[in-house]
Write a structure and sequence with these properties.
about 100 residues, Nonspecific Lipid-transfer Protein, Chain A, 4-stranded mixed β-sheet, about 40% helix, about 20% strand
Length: about 100
């Protein structure tokens, strides 16, 4: 998969914002092939597959930061794969969207 440099810049900016809003290590947010972060306070994950994961494309991440109300629709259409009891990041994206300057 080719990395689009413009998407890479936006993904990095968005993930840094999410880490600042929801610091922690209980959820792994993956945006392949661009990056992955750990966020959300709670249990710390150190090895293996984390119990709470969220994965989406860079394009979906950018669309979501601009329209956070699309979270349920993206989950339902499998544009976001979220698993684990703490994997609902809809509130995090709502807060991040208000602070995002894309």
């Amino acid at each position: 998969m080719q990395k689009d440099p413009e998407i890479a810049i936006e993904v990095k900016k968005i993930l840094e914002l999410i880490k600042s809003i929801a610091p922690g290590q209980s959820v792994e947010l993956r945006v392949p092939p661009y990056s992955a972060i750990q966020c959300v306070a709670g249990s710390n994950h150190r090895r293996g597959t984390p119990p709470n994961t969220v994965e989406m494309s860079g394009e979906t991440l950018i669309q979501l930061i601009n329209q956070p109300t699309l979270w349920p629709q993206f989950c339902q259409s499998a544009q976001i794969q979220a698993s684990g009891g703490s994997s609902d990041l809809s509130e995090v994206f709502a807060v991040a969207s208000a602070k995002y300057k894309g």
